[in-house]
Amino acid sequence: xxxxxxxxxxxxxxxxxxxxxxxxxxxxxxxxxxxxxxxxxxxxxxxxxxxxxxxxxxxxxxxxxxxxxxxxxxxxxxxxxxxxxxxxxxxxxxxxxxxxxxxxxxxxxxxxxxxxxxxxxxxxxxxxxxxxxxxx
Length: 136
Prior knowledge:
By secondary structure, the protein is α+β, with helices and mostly antiparallel strands. The protein contains four helices and five strands. The protein has helices at about 1-15, 45-55, 85, 120-135, and strands at about 25, 40, 65-70, 95-100, 105-115. Helix 2 (about 45-55) runs parallel beside helix 4 (about 120-135). It is globular, with a radius of gyration of 18 Å.
C-alpha cells in the first residue's frame, strides 16, 4: 500500500523533468514514401549540425526535395498569456523544425518544442525520426 502511494507521489517529479514534448508531424497527402532523395538547405544552420546530418544521410544537391532545418534557442516570451506555464517552469526554451519541400510546396513538417537549447544530439534524435517517417 505504502509503495503504491510512494510511486504515485514520485510520478509528477519524473514527468516534470521531461526535456522533450511530443513532436507535431504534418504529412501532405501528395507525399509518397519512401522518398528517393533529399537535398539539405544549409542556410542558417550551425556547421556542427550540418556535419551531423550529413553523417546520417547522403544528401544530394541535384535532388528536387529540399530539407529545411530551422531552430531557435533561448526563447523569451513576455506575453501575459503564458504566465502560468512560465511560473511552473514548463515554458519551452527552444524549438526545432524540419520541413521537406518540393519547390514551394510543403510535403512534410516536423516541429518540436524543447525545454533546453537545441544541440547536436537533439538534431540527430529528431532527424532520425524524420528519416524513419520519410524512408519507410
